[in-house]
């Protein structure tokens, strides 16, 4: 059995936001919706100040709390570990948003364009994939994965800091990286077992 | 579009998914189930038939709660889907418990009006209906706590004390409704001295529980501590101390205590008790609101 996951090398990430933009382009998410984000924080004072950068996305947890609380069965977990939301089943109760410790889910209250009232042609096409009144999140670009491609954020990363593959396969690139380098997951104490790892 | 900087900050975030509509839904569930169970107590223990209280409890707990919950749904037409996962989701369980309490409660109460029905409250079937409805109402009281305490992400909610606190608040709301109805309907043989003692004991129990709850959440990790500080010292402090504690618990305790000690003051006592009831209900609503607003996610790193 496979468990798809992502490994993000924080030493090589340059915070260029290409992952954020590529996710927007690939998935055509409406304004204020960011399935992929880059968190930033400045720490310390001159001359020892430093900026912490953390690219985040849905962790596709092995034990997803969002799946447990979903009353309608809209949130499901595939055999390969990808956690998905079926927009046709979602009732928009937002319980998953309060359950997700990673703030990875977005409620689509209304779909507006980036450039005023009227949607531009590309928005009219891309917004067909989205519904108002439901919750959405990163899908690990499941449609691309089905075709044997990597998620858009992985493919576009100019610093090659994102790696995608089968965490259960000891010979995969992600497994080898995790063996060779020190890594961490976000909020491991909560017990969600995220499938996104960070190399330090 | 401007980049939403706050969204990219590595700081603790307050949950914004659930607001007033859910606070109202949780509050109404407590008021309805509390009123239903207190009306049953009046009927079974004090021997005073109180169908109005039973029906009002069902109306508030079932119909008004569902309306408030559906109002908050993004896809209201798919409401029926929330019943699909009672094995895992507390929202599903809650709606089933509320349905159980409404349906069986109505079946128990209606022989009071429709005597042609083949059962009465005293027959075996009537008693069975009462037990199932009471279990549903009791479950509804717990549900409003469990639906929040099940969230791993928000540690101020993620404690077993919360469902107990919600049950205490639900019983308090039930007695508060009795005090308010007393001013409109008259006593009708109900032993209000017992209800006053219950109200005062419950308020003291709730305050002790609140203290234990805040002591627990205040030391349960960074996010939980931030949320607790938000409640007791931060932006929500005026709602918490002024609304939840002073208006919702202390004033009703003082008023109820005064009317209990001075039981011979007559009509003013009824008005004072109704005031205590209104204050207690206001505090109950603010309790849910402040609890939802204080929901702080843990920092991811």
Describe the protein.
The complex is a heterodimer of chains A (200) and B (301). Chain A is an alpha+beta fold and 200 residues long. Chain A has a single domain, classed as Alpha-Beta Plaits (2-Layer Sandwich), CATH 3.30.70.20. Helix content of chain A is 22%, strand content 22%. Chain B is mostly helical and 301 residues long. Chain B is 69% helix and 0% strand. Chain B contains nine helices and no strands. Chain B has helices spanning 20-44, 51-72, 90-109, 124-149, 161-185, 192-218, 222-232, 237-261, 267-293. The A-B interface holds A 31-32, 34, 37-41, 52, 54, 56, 65, 67-74, 89-95, 97-103, 107-109, 114, 132-135, 186-187, 190-192 and B 1, 4, 7-11, 13, 15, 17-18, 72-75, 78-79, 81-85, 88-92, 95, 147, 150-154, 295, 297-298, 300-301.
Could you estimate the helical fraction of the residues of chain A in percent? 10-25%
Spatial extent as radius of gyration of chain B: 20 Å
Query: What portion of residues of chain B belong to β-strands?
Result: under 5%
Just name the CATH architecture of chain A: 2-Layer Sandwich
Query: What string, H for helix and E for strand, traces the elements of chain B in order?
Result: HHHHHHHHH
Subunit organisation of the chains: heterodimer
Nearest-integer average pLDDT of chain B: 88
CATH topology of chain A: Alpha-Beta Plaits
List how many beta strands of chain B DSSP finds: 0
Radius of gyration of chain A: 17 Å
Number of domains of chain A: 1
- For this structure, what is the CATH class of chain B? Mainly Alpha
Proportion in β-strands of chain A: 15-25%
Global mean pLDDT of chain A? 92
User: Which fold name corresponds to the CATH topology of chain B?
Assistant: Formate dehydrogenase/DMSO reductase fold
Shape of chain B: globular
Count of alpha/pi helices of chain B: 9
Counting structural domains of chain B, the number is 1
Number of strands of chain A: 10
Distance between the termini of chain A: 28 Å
């Amino acid at each position: 059995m496979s468990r798809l996951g992502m490994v993000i090398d924080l030493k090589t990430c340059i915070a260029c936001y290409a992952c954020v933009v590529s996710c927007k382009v690939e998935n055509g998410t409406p304004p204020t919706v960011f399935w992929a984000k880059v968190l930033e924080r400045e720490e310390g004072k001159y001359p020892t100040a430093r900026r912490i950068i953390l690219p985040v996305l849905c962790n596709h947890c092995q034990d997803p709390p969002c799946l447990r609380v979903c009353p309608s069965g809209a949130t499901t977990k595939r055999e390969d570990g990808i956690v998905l939301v079926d927009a046709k089943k979602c009732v928009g109760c937002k319980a998953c948003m309060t359950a997700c410790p990673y703030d990875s889910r977005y409620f689509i209250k209304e779909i507006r364009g980036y450039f005023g009232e009227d949607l531009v042609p590309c928005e009219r096409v891309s917004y067909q994939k989205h519904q108002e009144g439901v919750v959405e999140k990163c899908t690990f670009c499941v449609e691309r994965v089905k075709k044997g491609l990597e998620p858009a954020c992985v493919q576009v990363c100019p610093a090659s800091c994102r790696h995608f593959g089968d965490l259960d396969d000891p010979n995969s690139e992600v497994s080898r990286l995790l063996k060779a380098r020190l890594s961490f997951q976000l909020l491991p104490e909560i017990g969600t077992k995220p499938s996104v790892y960070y190399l330090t | 579009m401007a980049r939403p900087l706050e969204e990219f900050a590595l700081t603790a975030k307050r949950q914004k998914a659930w607001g007033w509509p859910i606070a109202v839904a949780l509050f109404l569930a407590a008021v309805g189930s509390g009123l239903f169970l207190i009306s049953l107590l009046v009927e079974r223990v004090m021997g005073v038939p109180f169908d109005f209280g039973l029906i009002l409890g069902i109306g508030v707990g079932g119909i008004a709660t569902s309306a408030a919950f559906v109002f908050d749904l993004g896809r209201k037409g798919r409401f029926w889907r929330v019943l699909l996962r009672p094995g895992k989701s507390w929202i599903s369980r809650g709606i089933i418990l509320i349905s159980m309490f409404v349906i069986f409660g109505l079946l128990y109460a209606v022989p009071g009006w429709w005597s042609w029905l083949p059962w009465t409250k005293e027959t075996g079937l009537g008693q069975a209906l009462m037990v199932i409805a009471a279990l549903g109402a009791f479950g509804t009281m717990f549900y409003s706590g469990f639906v929040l305490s099940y969230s791993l992400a928000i540690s101020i909610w993620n404690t077993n004390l919360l469902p107990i606190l919600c049950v205490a608040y639900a019983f308090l709301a039930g007695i508060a409704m009795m005090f308010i109805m007393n001013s409109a309907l008259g006593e009708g043989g109900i032993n209000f001295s017992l209800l006053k003692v219950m109200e005062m004991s419950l308020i003291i129990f709730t305050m002790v529980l609140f203290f234990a709850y805040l002591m627990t959440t205040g030391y349960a990790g960074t996010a939980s501590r931030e949320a607790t500080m938000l409640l007791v010292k931060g932006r929500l402090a005026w709602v918490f101390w002024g609304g939840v504690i002073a208006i919702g618990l202390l004033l009703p305790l003082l008023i109820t205590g005064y009317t209990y000690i001075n039981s011979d003051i007559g009509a003013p006592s009824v008005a004072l008790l109704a005031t205590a009831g209104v204050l207690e209900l206001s505090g109950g609503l603010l309790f849910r609101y402040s609890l939802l607003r204080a929901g702080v996610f843990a920092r991811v790193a």
